[in-house]
Amino acid sequence: MRWNRRELAQLEKLWAAGQSAAQIARHLECSRNAVCGRLARLGLTRGHKPPTAKPKIRPAPKRGPTVMAAGRDCIGKKLSQKALDSSGNEQAAPLRDAS
After folding, report:
1. Taking 60 as the threshold, does the pLDDT of residue 13 lie above it?
2. What is the mean pLDDT of residues 53-67?
3. What contacts 12, CB < 8 A, 6 or more positions away?
4. What is the mean pLDDT of the chain?
5. Residue 6: count of CB within 10 angstroms of its CB
6. Which residue pairs from 27-31 have beta carbons closer than 8 angstroms and sit at least 24 positions apart in sequence?
7. Across residues 13-23, what is the average pLDDT?
8. CA neighbor of 7 nearest in space, from 33, 37, 32, 38
9. What is the SS3 assignment for the chain?
10. Are 26 and 19 in contact (CB under 8 A)?
11. Given this model, what pLDDT does residue 62 score?
């Protein structure tokens, strides 16, 4: 769309009066996008744009090791020698020399 001086003056007057781009477009008989583009090129803004929200992005929770099968629930646990002996994993006693 070609803008003449009269239309530019009306655009600035209506924008300063607080009319929306759609209302101005209907008044000037052009598209809303033409009005928005001209407003941007002229550098006209409302000046009261509310601040945008900045949501807090939380990291995904860390997952521990999963239990793969029955009997593997002691992964990562430190067991004492006494606990190992009582579970049936007895170690053979060292052999003594018969000398």
Report:
1. yes
2. 76
3. 42, 44
4. 78
5. 9
6. 30/1, 31/1
7. 92
8. 38
9. CCCCHHHHHHHHHHHHCCCCHHHHHHHHCCCHHHHHHHHHHHCCCCCCCCCCCCCCCCCCCCCCCCCCCCCCCCCCCCCCHHHHHHCCCCCCCCCCCCC
10. no
11. 82
